[in-house]
Amino acid sequence: xxxxxxxxxxxxxxxTIKNVKVSVRRLWLVMLTFIFAxxxxxxxxxxxxxxxxxxxxAWKIEFIDDTGxxxxxxxxxxxxxxxxxxxxxxxxxxxxNLGEKDSDIDYxxxxxxxxxxxxxxxxxxxxxxxxxxxxxxxxxxxxxxxKKVTLFNNVSKYPFEIYxxxxxxxxxxxxxxxxxxxxxxxxxxEITGTxxxxxxxxxxxxxxxxxxxxxxxxxxxxDKYALKISLDINAKQKMx
Length: 240
Hints:
13 strands; 8-stranded mixed sheet; elongated
């Protein structure tokens, strides 16, 4: 009986020693792997370091209004006098790119309010049966790097139009002299066309003139702006 116990103890001791040897081998393998990985990383960093200096291009955009004052990229257009034959309302934003990279320019109209009604703006071709009377469709033309958008361009409903024109790109290190962003409101007194077209224009002048006059009277002591447009001008570094 004692011999059997001694034999079992010897076998258990052999198994324990064997497991210890295996664990030590695994530990050595892990340590060697870590050491080699560390040396490889140090060698890579030593190789990379001479070439690791990266130049970050300077980036600065200025928005200047037509009074010469620097403004934010959020622009408000408030038109008080809106009537047939009015002088065109013009607003110009100068965009200076003082950075080292060309800049893409675009904008987003956040609100268009005419006579207290907020209009929904869609692209031409997006007509839907559910569109309300306060939905308009913008006409967009891009040519020679200039984007021109026309609003209220339905001559059967509106006797006036709004034009928004902007350069789609402002080159690096450019001081804007001409005005890269322009808004124009135009309501002509007369148009050239057929007798039917001229009659329609006269009727629309009368209708909208009456609506504007009625709107002014309803405002009492409030700010009397027949037309309000809010937009954000977006400038981002051109991706090469």
